[in-house]
Structure formats: structure tokens, C-alpha cells
Amino acid sequence: MRTIPSPDRSIAGRLAGVVGDVLGMVPVRIRAWDGSESGPDDAPVVVLRSRTALRRLLWNPDELGLARAYVAGEIDVEGDLAEGLSRVWTLVRARPPVLPGWRDRLRWAGTALRLGVVGRRPPPPAEEAVLSGEKHSTDRDSDAISYHYDQSNELYAALLDEHMAYSCAYFRADPADNGDAGYTITEAQRDKLELVCRKLGLQPGMRLLDVGCGWGSLILYAAEHHGVHATGVTISAQQRDHVEKLVAERGLADRVAVRLQDYREVPVPAVGPYDAVASIEMSEHVGQEQYPEYAATLHRLVRPGGRVLLQAMSHPSAPGGGAFIERYVAPDMHMRPVWETAAMLARPGLELRDVESIREHYAWTVRAWADTLEQRWDEIVGLIGEAGARIWRLYLAGGGLTFAENRMGVDQLLFVRPGDTGASGMPATRAGWTPAT
Are residues 248 and 350 in the same domain? Predict the structure, then answer.
């Protein structure tokens, strides 16, 4: 006579049953607040520290509920966080979009009642962004940028490379394959900066504008290695202060300037438009409604025959970065497919000359940042607190996956502003663009 195994009635077992109903299988091991465990032995362990985590999911049964519980420390993960997220996401994509029937919903409600997780909505963690005012007004944009970029210069110095370049690097090869232990994220960011300078055709004495200059990696590099006069604009006061300090330390006051200024307020210099304009992963903060003005601004600020390089993230469908990104990382973020971005930038009169996808490079870049975060965890907790560090851990784990799994992209788009006769002045081939190795 065959014996039918009894269902696991522990807290973890009941929860695993619900997860299995929703996803078709249990992709992670679950450890509940009473110490019970259920799920595959060889998977990352999701630790539920209290009933509050599940209460959040009752009110927000989605990415936001999970993110709030993780930031608050009510859910933790033992093992590879990125692997756990990937397992769950793989099952979500494979499941047909069918709403649960009333029998399932009644059974899940009964489980929630028996586990004591039904109750008042928990307040969101204090770290969650709360913005006011008209979306993409200058004041709200300033608040949105300040929320993420003004956490502290010390934080970004601890996380990023020596250039403090907070954007996708450009690797000579897949770090898993090249076997070059001496080639680090610092070298990859240097190669990205060099590639940008070469695509822009920078020569000594030219004038470069960087719209959204960050901590100054491009304008400092271009001035020191290509002899240009570089101007950067940012709406982050801490970024401006950091660049000004480096300019003074390196004796570059005659070649590098940085201004606390919204892109909509940048004037054409008295001597005429700039020879080249760059905007590196800033356009995601512009917003769909303001993008025509952004495109017109780039066209207005570059001279005929001058080049514009945009490095921008893209998304095939969803305009934002998701509930977690919009609440805890980049409020009011807006992306679109790369071809739509190219079309919007071309409308004022810029001519698209080259597009290069560097999507895999962002997965490698984020992996390097995530490794640094873990190596310097205590230091970073000391700078921004445990919840702040957990936001970064979740952000980097999830962000790396979106690029590795082709759910987001990043591209370099090179434009030129043709002269009155249509001449572009562009080189005949790409031969001079590849950074020297």
C-alpha cells in the first residue's frame, strides 16, 4: 500500500505551499520566524524575520511590498541575492497571466489568518522617496536628483572607481574570459571615457559641454588627456562641490568649469556654441514631456559640425525603472526603446551617425560595484545606515540582472549637427574610435 506524504504544516511549509501555487514551484528555500524551513536545499534561503513582512505583501503583493520588507530588514536572503531574484523572475515570466480563482484566494486568505499576518498596513520605511510638485519641474527634478546623488560624496567614493564614474564602463572583454587580473573597473571606466572623447573627435583647444556631469569624470579626463576646455553642469550641489575641489587640487581652473545649473538654463556662450556636447546617463531623468526641450537644448548648444554623444539606458516597454527603483533609487525616471530616443533627438536637426549597444558591459560594471559594496559593507553602513546599504544591495543585484537578462539596455548614440550645406565633417570609418589597449 502506497503511503501519501503528509503536507508540511509548519509556518515555512504553509508559505511554501502558497508560493508553489502562485509560481508553479518553490524557487528558494524559506525560513520562517519560528525557525521552520521548507523548499529546495540547494537554493538561496529567504529569511522571514517577522509577520510584518507578509503583512506588507498582503497590502502590496508585488515588487514594492517585497522591497519595503527587504529595506526594513523584515526579509533577508542568505546566499546569492541575484541568483534568488533570477530564479523568481524566471518563474514569473514562465507563468501565464491568469488571475487566481476564488478557491485559491480563499485558501490563501485562510493561511494568512492562521499565521496572524492580517492587520493594518505597515508604514513604508523612512528611506522611501516622497516628492511633491509638478513632475519634471525644475524644483522637483532638483529634489529627485538630490535624493539619490546627494547621499554623500564619501559614499560614492567608497563604491565607485578612482574616476568616480557612475555610469556604464567599457570593458576590453568579458571579465570572466580575459584572465587579466590587473584590468579593473577603474581601467574599464578609463576606456569608456577615452571612447567618448574619441567619438566626439576632441582635439586640444576645443570646448566641451557635459550635461549632467556627475562627479566630473569626463570633463576632468578630457581636459587632462585631450587638452580641451570643459564645462560641466549638474543640479547636485555635492557633485558640484566635489568637482570644484578636484579642479583646484589638479590646477585645472583655466580649463575646467562646473556649474550648478539645470540643463534648461544653460546659455550659448558669448563665443558661440560648444564644439562637442556629451550627456552620460542623465537623459533618464528628463521625462517624456520634457524630452523635446532637452533634445532642442543639445542641438542649440553645439556648433554646426559639432558632435553630440548620449549614453542612455533603454527599456522596451515600461517607461520607469519599476516600483522599487522609483521609490528608493531614481524617482521620476523615464526610459523608452533606444530607437524612440534616437528619433526624439534627431527632430531638432541632429543627424544620427552611430549607435553602439553596451548592455553586457553594464552587467559587468554593476557586478564590480556590488563586489565593492560587500567588501566595504561596514564602512558603507557607517555612512548611510543599514537600510541605506540594503537599498544599494537590492538595487545592484536587481539592476545587474536587468541588463544581463536583456530586460534593459544601454547604448551610446553619436550625433552630429550638420552645417548649412549638409556637411557633417565626420570621419569615413570608425577606425579612430577604439580606445588604445
Answer: yes
